[in-house]
């Protein structure tokens, strides 16, 4: 989605909002369908409208992921205060990826400093190690990383938008769980939403 149109040499312009698009690349075609999401939007109704426009159904994971991102955008637009943002962000990460524990890093003076920790049970009953050097690298390079630590998979994604990094999301996965490229993309999008 976005805008498409033209600017004329005589100062005339005509722009339209793009809500249904087909993007064709060599070997790959994608069909996009969107809607006008405003503060009063109901995420479930907006998603159903997109499906109606596409004249089909989406995979369960795609539906869940899109609904989660729409809920995040709506929730984040109405929050005031860092603690409330952290709670929504941690809940969203726990909903989007098979994470058991989430650490959020980023304070006024240091994007790599740990500011809060969350778990599926919302209480951090046991401690776990967060490597500050990895968080520093992710915030400096603005790139996500996935690795194994203590027999678990871990993903660390930046909270970055508009060329600035405000922190990072550290997600410690449940034992035996794995993360894929789509999970990482979702975390990067969520990180950008929060960083704005």
What would the keywords be for this entry?
196 residues, two-stranded antiparallel sheet, 9 strands, globular
Describe this structure in words.
The protein is α+β, with helices and mostly antiparallel strands and 196 residues long. Helix content is 36%, strand content 32%. The chain has helices spanning 43-54, 60-77, 82-96, 132-141, 181-195; strands at residues 2-7, 13-18, 20-25, 28-33, 99-105, 114-119, 145-149, 152-161, 164-173. A hairpin with a 2-residue loop joins strand 7 (145-149) and strand 8. The protein is globular and about 60 Å long.
Topology:
Layout: E1 2-7, E2 13-18, E3 20-25, E4 28-33, H1 43-54, H2 60-77, H3 82-96, E5 99-105, E6 114-119, H4 132-141, E7 145-149, E8 152-161, E9 164-173, H5 181-195
Antiparallel strand pairs: 1-2, 3-4, 5-6, 5-9, 7-8, 8-9
Helix pairs in contact: 2-3, 2-5, 3-5
Short summary:
The chain has 196 residues and is an alpha+beta fold.
Overall spatial form = globular
How far apart are the first and last residues' alpha carbons, in Å? 19 Å
Structural class designation: alpha+beta
Mean pLDDT: 76
User: Number of helical segments?
Assistant: 5
Oligomer: single chain
How helix-rich are the residues, as a percent range?
25-40%
Question: What is the H/E string?
Answer: EEEEHHHEEHEEEH
Poorly predicted ranges: none
